[in-house]
Amino acid sequence: MGQKVNPYGFRLGSFYPWKSRWFASKNQDFATSLLEDRKIRNFLMENLKAAGISRVDIERSFDKRTIYIYVSRPGVAIGRGGTGIEQLKAAMLKRFKIKDAGKMEIKFEEVKTPDLDAYLVAVNIAEQLTRRIPFRRIMNQSLERVKRSGAKGVRIQLSGRLGGSEIARRESLKDGAIPLHTLRAIIDFAKLDAKVPKSGIVGIKVWIFKGES
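-> structure tokens emitted (213 positions)
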């Protein structure tokens, strides 16, 4: 029986870069740095929702952290005259107790086509579900937007008490090809949970096939 694997992890190192790029000299340093990376990501994902944050990559050298933040609305994150970056950096230095500001650099990268980013599509679906918009309408509209943006294939799956039903079930919608077993296929994948009023937790999964490398 075939086993499902995360399409991003399956292609990690071949087509997708690691989200944390550094080496540790000791096991203890590795654990400490990895935990700090996780806290940094959680902090940024929570505080930059309005900027349409997609992902956070972290590079470390001997005495410096470089944080790459991918957002769909960089103007919102950067702010007028770069004030947003300075405020964000100050908050992070205080939160993570970094005394030397020169040891942290923040760079913003623009996600030019948000409708081809699986995580941003999933976030948009979650926001609409919390506003209690009918889930089938959300799925159809999201699929159409992704297809119009140039995707070769897209699949959207929702699971939970959809529409407030008593029994949990799974609904999926697909258009085009999603060649999960083809390593040269560029497939973006995301999953997250949405807290929906009167329905509880609804799981969201999005696959987007962008073409072959």
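The CA atoms of residues 113 and 166 lie 37 Å apart.
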